[in-house]
Design a protein that fits this description.
Helix 19 packs across helix 22 and helix 29 crosses helix 30. The protein starts with a helix and ends with a helix. It folds into 4 domains: about 200 residues, 2-Layer Sandwich (Dna Ligase, domain 1), CATH 3.30.1490; about 140 residues, ATP-grasp fold, B domain (D-amino Acid Aminotransferase, Chain A, domain 1, 2-Layer Sandwich); about 130 residues, 3-Layer(bba) Sandwich (Glucose Oxidase, domain 1), CATH 3.50.30.10; about 325 residues, TIM Barrel, CATH 3.20.20. It is an alpha/beta fold. It contains 30 helices and 30 strands. Strand 26, helix 23 and strand 27 form a beta-alpha-beta unit. The protein has an 8-stranded parallel β-barrel, surrounded by 6 helices. A 7-stranded mixed beta barrel has the order 15-19-18-17-16-20-21.
């Protein structure tokens, strides 16, 4: 026995058993595994960028092989795996047998001594027993072509030398869980050529603060100008595992380096119902969060922006989009990066074709949550409370469960779509769904309770950030948009946008900006409260409405500030999607009956016989009844342009009846910090009233451009209510009277040196109308995204024909 130990000791002395993390980098991946190599890389090269990584050491792959060889386990494990390969035993039995073998064998004495010594050095400045995080780092994980990382175990709040050795042995054993063996089979890694290194680091006291994950790319759309951060109170495993609905923050990368700007473009507070903390008598405990924690952001804006800057630095160093884990120490107040690996889904997609889904005749919405992906799927619901019931799953069903972990992978691969009660955008269910190309709705909160097994449903993730489960099989229209076949045109083709959540889906389209961003959609769907109800809350008469307003604004002392900030975030997401191309934001154009539907709106809106021709657009902005509300709209735009830094936003004024009215509106805007030409601000006017055409020269003196609203212009030229079913046959936005008005407006605007655009679907539905607009000299046409390709092609043909005719 002593002779054997002596021989093993000589073998070990020729190898490196322990290495400090700050002495390794990505060139030593085979020695310390992907996770540890990346941590060492950052410790060595990212400190100058301010990135903090906890100190620690790695127990090397050499130590793993030394343990197997000194105990005779290498041969015995290979024999067990050969039985599995031959079909003589099942994966569950073999995995249990190998793990039992590993856990039953002691480490060689010199390896134990080396671990003890490294632990003492790491904790030399600590009072009492050092608490460490012990993480597995396989030599085949976190590689660009191995995207199902995280198969092996990690252990938190490990204290004491013996506990550390025990945790290391359990890490080794986790290399042979069923999911780990499956993982290697999927990626065709030879089991006995994959080793395990163990990383040991200072335990970041995130249990007293928060932690989460971060991506330097939008995980749903592949938009590469965003940093996505998810956060929960306590240790970050709750976010990684997906058993909470975390906070979500979005930061716009191109403006992060500009001094004075704060490009936080979205801040969504998640439910965060549970958190993982250090336990008493056990390493960790999952407990409920307090009501205050659930409604509060885990990170303040300064910390969010600091993390985002680190993400940009790490991405720049690695030269590719990254997937990172972070933790905030509640004792020191310091942020740390505790893991970084390449993002392996969106960054590898080839941007050749966009597949678009449009739902028609959809059934009743049964539940909703965070939408993952942009597809639509249909199938029968299969509810599974546990992965042990996976034999009951039928291929092509919609998997409904509480949450998933790596053990669910085999059944997830057989699903048409996935729906979970818990989890956010970076949960296990979300990550795997993206990799498998499946639509998923996560964090519904009630899917397991509400959805009936066997029911046919449509799962839609094609309508923005929210995913929906509809009753029955909806009518789904699928279109492929090839990005290789889009012609170049002189006429700018822009997009109509309303929903900020959906804007990022279209970033790959080579559009020339957003020609119409509808502010009222953001107010209706995100703000939900009438601005005057926030400015004059004493006038809100309905108690139920007052309670709803109080709930939405409960964490805001400055109630009008809720309107400004929420609206600004919505505008910013739209503006970021097209930056630096122009984004024309139309100020609110609700009619009185529409304003009245906002919370508190009924107390501020008159009842009009014909709201379409009533108190709308410009007439509201300077009136006593809404001027202060319009002021909040102006402050939101000002925040987007000057604080967030998205100065590509152009303001557009709708339904401006006279030049005198334009003067009044511009004066109110200036009083609220939006002065035309100041800080490069341009102000456009909608051309949708005959007076805008007749007095085009006068309007051109007050504005920087025109945008033709063809629906209202047609309505008022022909005297036809555009909403009247009885007059639908008369309404014709290609009528000669409308065409002559458009031609006259373009001529007058160009004479004054101003550009003219048109917002509407007619150019996509009628190629002859597109040709007319091109011949008239229109500068831009703005259409819905799914019509972009058709309009671009119509315009290209028209430009070619006109060019040949001139020659």
């Amino acid at each position: 026995m002593n002779r054997q130990f002596s021989q093993d000791h000589r073998k070990a002395s020729a190898k490196t058993l322990i290495v400090s993390l700050d002495k390794v980098d990505n060139t030593r991946l085979n020695e310390v595994g992907g996770k540890n190599a990346s941590l060492g890389e950052m410790l060595q090269h990212m400190r100058q960028s301010g990135v903090r990584v906890p100190d620690g050491f790695a127990i090397t792959a050499d130590a793993y092989w030394y343990f197997l060889d000194s105990t005779g386990l290498r041969k015995r494990i290979a024999e067990k795996l050969a039985q599995l390969e031959a079909g003589d035993a099942d994966i569950v039995t073999i995995g249990k047998q190998i793990r039992r073998m590993i856990l039953s064998k002691p480490f060689p004495a010199d390896l134990v001594a080396a671990i003890h010594d490294a632990y003492k050095v790491l904790g030399k400045n600590e009072k009492g027993s050092l608490s460490v995080a012990v993480r597995s780092s396989a030599t085949a994980e976190d590689l660009p072509d191995a995207s199902f990382a995280g198969q092996q175990e990690s252990f938190l709040n490990v204290q004491g030398e013996e506990a550390l050795v025990s945790a290391c042995r359990r890490c080794y054993a986790s290399l042979f869980t069923e999911r780990s063996i499956n993982y290697r089979n999927i990626h065709k890694f030879e089991h006995m050529k994959v080793a395990l290194s163990v990383g040991v680091q200072h335990m970041v006291r995130a249990d007293k603060a928060g932690a989460g994950v971060m991506f330097s790319i939008d995980t749903e759309t592949g938009f590469d100008k965003l940093v996505l951060i998810n956060a929960n109170w306590g240790l970050g495993e709750t976010v990684v595992q997906g058993n909470v609905e975390p906070d979500e923050y979005l930061v716009f990368k191109p403006l992060l380096s500009q001094k004075g700007l704060r490009p936080l473009i979205d801040k969504n507070i998640g439910a965060k119902e549970k958190k993982l903390v250090l336990g008493k008598g056990k390493p960790t405990a999952l407990i409920r969060t307090t009501a205050r924690e659930r409604r509060s952001a885990v990170l303040d804006d300064d910390l969010i922006l600091q993390l985002a800057r680190w993400a940009v630095s790490i991405e720049s160093h690695y030269g590719r989009p990254m997937d990172m884990e972070w933790a905030l120490d509640g004792v020191s107040g310091e942020l740390f990066i505790i893991q970084a690996r390449p993002e392996t889904v969106q960054s590898r997609k080839a941007a050749v074709t966009l597949k678009t889904y449009t739902l028609k005749k959809k059934g009743r919405c049964l539940t909703s949550g965070t939408g993952i992906g942009d597809a639509v799927a249909q199938g029968k619901i299969c509810k599974l409370a546990s992965v042990v019931d996976s034999n009951k799953f039928q291929d092509g069903s919609v998997l409904v469960t509480t949450m998933t972990d790596p053990d669910w992978l085999p059944v997830m691969k057989r699903a048409a779509a996935i729906v979970t009660d818990h989890g956010g955008r970076t949960s296990h269910a979300a990550i795997v769904s993206r990799e498998l190309g499946l639509p998923a709705v996560v964090g519904t909160g009630d899917a397991m309770r509400i959805l009936e097994a066997g029911r046919e449903v449509t799962v839609s993730c094609a309508e923005g950030d929210r995913g929906f489960v509809y009753e029955g099989n909806a009518e789904v229209k699928v279109r492929d948009v090839s990005l290789d076949d889009i012609p170049v045109t002189r006429t700018h083709i822009m997009l109509n946008m309303a929903n900020p959540a959906a804007a990022l889906r279209w970033w790959q389209l080579p559009a020339d900006g957003i020609g119409l961003a509808r502010m009222e959609f953001i107010i209706n769907n995100s703000v939900r409260i009438h601005p005057m109800a926030l400015l004059q809350p004493q006038r809100v008469s309905d108690r139920k409405v007052r309670r709803q307003i109080a709930s939405l604004t409960r964490d805001r002392e400055d109630k009008p500030g809720y309107f400004v900030d929420t609206l600004a975030m919505g505008i910013a997401r739209l503006a970021a999607s097209a930056y630096p191309s122009p984004v024309i934001v139309r100020m609110s154009d609700f009619k009185t009956n529409e304003y009245a539907k906002l919370l508190g709106g009924a107390d501020f809106e008159p009842q009009e016989a014909n709201p379409m021709l009533g108190w709308r657009g410009s007439s509201r902005y300077y009136s006593e009844g809404y001027r202060e509300g319009f002021g909040l709209e102006c402050l939101a735009v000002k925040k987007v342009r000057e604080q967030i830094g998205l100065d590509n936003v152009i303001v557009m004024i709708p339904f401006c009846r006279t030049p005198e009215e334009a003067d009044l509106v511009l004066e109110v805007m200036a009083n609220n910090g939006l002065r035309r030409a100041e800080a490069g601000l341009q102000v456009y006017v909608m051309a949708e009233i005959p007076a805008n055409v007749i007095l085009a020269e006068e309007f051109a003196q007050r504005f920087d451009g025109f945008s033709i609203g063809s629906n209202d212009l047609t309505q008022l030229i022909l005297g036809v209510d555009r909403d009247s079913a009885q007059l639908a046959g008369i309404f014709n936005d290609r009528h000669e009277a409308v065409r002559r008005s458009i031609t006259a407006l373009i001529k007058s605007a160009h004479k004054a040196g101003l550009k003219v655009g048109l917002c509407g679907q007619a150019p996509s539905d009628h190629p002859d109308f597109a040709r007319f607009l091109v011949a008239a000299g229109i500068d831009s046409i703005s259409v819905n995204p799914d019509s972009f390709l058709a309009v671009k092609q119509h315009v290209a043909v028209a430009e070619s024909e006109i060019s040949r005719g001139r020659n």
